[in-house]
């Protein structure tokens, strides 16, 4: 699929597989690279130094996720406040005309504080722009306040809302707003067994005057957060590989062969290794790491280890997002993951999106005081 810079209700048009440009056409691709780089202000993200940024508090609100949970009150735990959002404009005299929406996708808003500094980061964009825009409006998240945006990886359920969001907020976002991706591989065309699974629209990013930040290694985000960079594969995890990718550019969509590993430049769809996938993390003073996994295609345990290695901080305060532990991954595999979680001994596990219901059932039974289900609108506030 291609997703152009049209309005929020745009319909995806298909790409012919025969039309994809592969290793050939080097002159065209090189010229296109020059044009896009100069226009979109592509740059390497600021590398994370030996000491990661530390913040006083962090509020992570789930903007888009698979489910809504209502009629559960706000609660406080050690170092954590869980603010439940009842939904839209509830009134005693009329039915709600606007409410939060759930969908198969993920988007999170992170607001951090350090002394008098406040930073707002939008991480992923869900599946549909209508859902993202609706939920941001209901939750009163002002797009003009956003200091940086991060895309975890190139799957449509994480970037599908992006183009509509950019179109609806044209002229409202901060000039040169940093947009972080884990490398050129994020732009490759992807497909699943069901068919095409989208291709990130570089042109829309250019026209929105974003600064495209390549973060193959650990990188600082808005002075308060950091991305993991490439997540190393190690240990027992055998995460699912639900998609395939293809290197090449057609009509300005796709990834540039010169910027991707030659081993991937086969001219055909190959298994997706997700080496471009990144997680976003914070260090909360006196508490430790809060890791926003997004989807964990390289393994949720590997993701934690990468955040620890990048920051030098070992204590895991909380883990939020998709863990990608779904069938055919079985109970034996899930128990290995739970055993690894127990070794890390995080204070809180907040699975959502693609974490998997069987995983949730088993981990909740094993670690009942630590596990909290994600839901659209819920705001998790971590404080020192």
Question: What is the structure about, briefly put?
Answer:
The chain has eight helices and 22 strands. It is α/β, with parallel strands linked by helices and 384 residues long. Strands 1-11-8-7-6-5-2-22-4-3 form a ten-stranded mixed β-sheet. A six-stranded mixed β-sheet has the order 12-13-18-19-20-21, covered by helices on one side.
Low-confidence spans: pLDDT under 50, at least 5 residues? 1-40
Q: Going across the biggest sheet, name each strand in turn.
A: 1-11-8-7-6-5-2-22-4-3
Strand content: 15-25%
Largest sheet: 10 strands, mixed
User: Care to count the β-strands?
Assistant: 22
N-to-C SSE string, H for helix and E for strand: HEEEEEEHEHHEEEHEEEEEEEEEHEHEHE
The tally of helices reads 8
Structural class of the secondary elements?
alpha/beta
Mean pLDDT: 88
What gross morphology would you assign?
globular
Bin the helical content.
10-25%
How many angstroms does the end-to-end distance come to? 45 Å
Spatial extent as radius of gyration: 20 Å
């Amino acid at each position: 699929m291609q997703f152009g810079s049209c309005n929020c209700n745009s319909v995806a048009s298909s790409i012919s597989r025969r039309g994809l440009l592969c290793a050939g056409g080097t002159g065209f691709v090189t010229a296109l690279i020059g044009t896009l780089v100069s226009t979109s202000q592509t740059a390497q993200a600021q590398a994370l130094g030996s000491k990661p940024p530390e913040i006083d508090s962090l509020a992570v609100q789930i903007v888009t996720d698979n489910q809504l949970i209502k009629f559960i009150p706000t609660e406080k735990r050690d170092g954590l406040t869980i603010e439940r959002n009842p939904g839209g404009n509830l009134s005693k005299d009329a039915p709600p005309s606007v409410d939060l929406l759930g969908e198969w996708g993920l988007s999170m808003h992170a607001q951090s504080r350090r002394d008098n500094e406040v930073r707002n980061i939008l991480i992923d964009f869900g599946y549909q722009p209508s859902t993202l825009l609706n939920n941001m409006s209901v939750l009163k998240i002002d797009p003009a306040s956003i200091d940086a945006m991060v895309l975890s990886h190139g799957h449509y359920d994480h970037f599908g809302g992006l183009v509509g969001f950019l179109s609806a907020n044209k002229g409202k976002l901060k000039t040169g707003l940093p947009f972080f991706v884990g490398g050129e591989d994020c732009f490759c065309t992807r497909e699943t067994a069901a068919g095409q699974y989208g291709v990130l629209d570089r042109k829309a990013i250019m026209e929105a005057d974003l600064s495209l930040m390549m973060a193959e290694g650990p990188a600082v985000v808005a002075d308060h957060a950091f991305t993991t960079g490439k997540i190393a594969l190690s240990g027992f995890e055998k995460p699912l590989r639900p998609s395939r990718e293809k290197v090449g550019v057609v009509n300005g969509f796709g990834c540039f062969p010169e910027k991707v590993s030659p081993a991937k430049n086969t001219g055909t769809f190959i298994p997706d290794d997700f080496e471009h996938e990144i997680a976003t993390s914070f260090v909360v003073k006196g508490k430790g790491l809060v890791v926003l996994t997004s989807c964990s295609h390289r393994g949720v345990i590997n993701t934690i280890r990468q955040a620890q290695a990048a920051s030098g901080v070992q204590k895991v305060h909380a883990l939020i997002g998709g863990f990608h532990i779904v069938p055919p991954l079985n109970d034996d595999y899930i128990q290995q993951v739970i055993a690894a979680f127990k070794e890390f001994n995080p204070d809180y596990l907040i699975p959502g999106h693609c974490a998997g219901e069987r995983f949730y059932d088993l981990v909740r039974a094993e670690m009942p005081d630590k596990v909290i289900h994600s839901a659209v609108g819920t705001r998790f506030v971590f404080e020192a």
